[in-house]
Structure formats: structure tokens, C-alpha cells
Design brief:
The chain has helices at about 5-30, 30-50, 60-80; strands at about 85-90, 95-100. The protein is mainly alpha-helical. It has a two-stranded antiparallel sheet with strand order 1-2. Helix 1 (about 5-30) packs antiparallel against helix 2 (about 30-50) and helix 2 runs antiparallel to helix 3 (about 60-80). It is flat and about 50 Å long.
């Protein structure tokens, strides 16, 4: 990379795409843990790309790349054991999306930790 925002963005997006492709191939071959872990890495790489989005020639790419970030994290969460549950927390007339990760083999009420990463943090800040 030559240090500019466009190179940063393009390089991280390309790495994320390759790792997401790897996750999809692993999933297709039944390698669920490998796929899950690759989806998490890809989500992180997409999030890293977005750090520079405002300084690029086309900041409008935020939406599509964030959508890919979200897709990869959703696939990671679905591959957890047990799968993470998507939740929606009521907030000011709307809702905030979230994920509930539960330990395997335990039923009933448990203590909970809520992690809020703020408006500029990626979803994968688990």
C-alpha cells in the first residue's frame, strides 16, 4: 500500500473478499468451524477497510461494504455453538440490533453482559 485511503480501502476489501470466499468453500465442504472462523476474519477485514471510507474518492461505498461486513458476521454468528440469536433491543421508538451468544448445554436464565461498541465500531467487536 502506498499510504493513501483508497489503497487502504481496496486492499482490505480484497482480502475480506478472498477470506469470505474461503469461508464459503469451507462451508460447502462441511468444514463448519473453519468456515465460521473465516467469516469472522472476513468481517474484521471489511470493518478495517471502512476505517478509511470517508477519505476515499467514493464514500458511498460504505453501505455495500458494511452490508458485506454484516453478512460475514451473521454467518459467523450462525456457526457458533449454539448459534447466536439475533435480538432487537427497543430504543427511542425503534430498535437496536444485537446478538445473544449463549453457552452450550445450559438452559434457563443466566447473567448477561451487554457490549456496546458505539456508532463507529464494527459489529465484530465481540
Amino acid at each position: 500500500m502506498d499510504g493513501d485511503a483508497e489503497s487502504w480501502f481496496a486492499t482490505w476489501v480484497e482480502l475480506a473478499r478472498r477470506v469470505c470466499d474461503q469461508a464459503e468453500r469451507s462451508e460447502a465442504h462441511g468444514r463448519q468451524v473453519t468456515a465460521r472462523d473465516a467469516y469472522l476474519r472476513a468481517a474484521g477485514y471489511y470493518a478495517t477497510a471502512l476505517v478509511s471510507i470517508d477519505a476515499t474518492a467514493d464514500p458511498q461505498r460504505l453501505g455495500p461494504v458494511f452490508g458485506k461486513h454484516r453478512h460475514c458476521f451473521d454467518r459467523f454468528a450462525a456457526g457458533w455453538d449454539p448459534p447466536a440469536e439475533q435480538v432487537f433491543i427497543p430504543y427511542e421508538g425503534g430498535s437496536l440490533p444485537g446478538y445473544l451468544f449463549s453457552p452450550p448445554g445450559i438452559a434457563g436464565a443466566l447473567p448477561i453482559v451487554i457490549v456496546n461498541n458505539g456508532s463507529d465500531g464494527p459489529i465484530n467487536a465481540v
